[in-house]
Design goal:
By secondary structure, the protein is an alpha/beta fold. The protein has one domain: Rossmann fold. It contains eight helices and ten strands. It has an eight-stranded mixed sheet with strand order 5-4-3-6-7-9-8-10. Strands 1-2 form a two-stranded antiparallel sheet. Helix 2 links the parallel strand 3 and strand 4.
Length: about 240
């Protein structure tokens, strides 16, 4: 069973009410997304509030909005934000992205999302976990996320998304349809030589050659985190 909380160096994530707990790949997303210099950021599907809080720690000037459809998760994210050092810079919205779009928010310099992605796998009997993990017409599709980003990013803004490789290919097609193009991609692997676990891809409005990098989470024997991972998460993880 996952812990009811996850303690970082500068903030604490309570997660007992959230279907999706803190996970390593989401922490990598929060640490690598190019949020420096962004005045306005949006975390789509914030869950526990993890990405919003990581962005607030990394960018001391940013104003951050966080959208979460699940009421229990949104309440927990709001509580995590309120208990953090950055409560005055983050707002949690307990609503769908579609309803948030209807409020016509000001454009964002960066949008972050670890979206639902199991488009074709079996549904979980846990309805909350199903909503968190699966795309569905009544929650958030890849096309809707891409169109929202195209509508609400600034001219030089970026969308950074975390997905497994097959789903990322599908998302890239939807993003291109919306007028967004991959510019950077980080490939996550468990260990050197293992198959890709996740892709973290940044999208912008201008087509360009994609800058690719790799990050392995563990040394080859999986005895501990790799030096590159430790360097990336040192400002967040307690024991690095």
């Amino acid at each position: 069973m996952a812990n009811s909380y996850f303690q970082f160096k500068q903030f604490r994530i309570e997660q007992g009410a959230c279907a999706m707990k803190v996970c390593t790949d989401a922490c990598v997303l929060g640490a690598v997304a190019a949020v420096a210099g962004a005045a306005r950021l949006l975390d789509v599907g914030t869950g526990t509030g993890l990405l919003a809080l990581m962005a607030a720690q990394r960018n001391p000037a940013a104003r951050i909005e966080a959208v979460e459809l699940d009421a229990a998760a949104a309440a927990q994210a709001a509580a995590n934000v309120a208990a953090s050092p950055w409560a005055g810079r983050i707002r949690v919205h307990a609503q769908s992205l579609q309803d948030f779009a209807a409020t016509q928010p000001a454009p964002f310099d960066h949008i972050l999302s670890n979206p639902p992605f199991f488009r074709h796998s079996l549904r979980s009997p846990d309805a909350q976990r199903t909503t968190a993990r699966h795309t569905a017409a009544d929650t958030l599709t890849f096309a809707e996320l891409a169109r929202f980003a195209a509508d609400f990013l600034t001219a030089a803004g970026q969308l950074t998304v975390l997905l497994p490789p097959p789903e990322m290919q599908h998302f890239e097609r939807e993003a291109r349809q919306a007028g967004l193009y991959p510019s950077r991609q980080l490939v996550l692997r468990h260990r050197p030589g293992s198959k890709p676990l996740r892709h973290i891809t940044a999208f912008s409005r201008q087509p360009a050659a994609v800058a690719e990098q790799e990050l392995t989470l563990h040394e080859s024997d999986e005895a501990g985190y790799s030096p590159a991972f430790q360097a990336l998460l040192r400002d967040f993880y307690l024991h690095l």
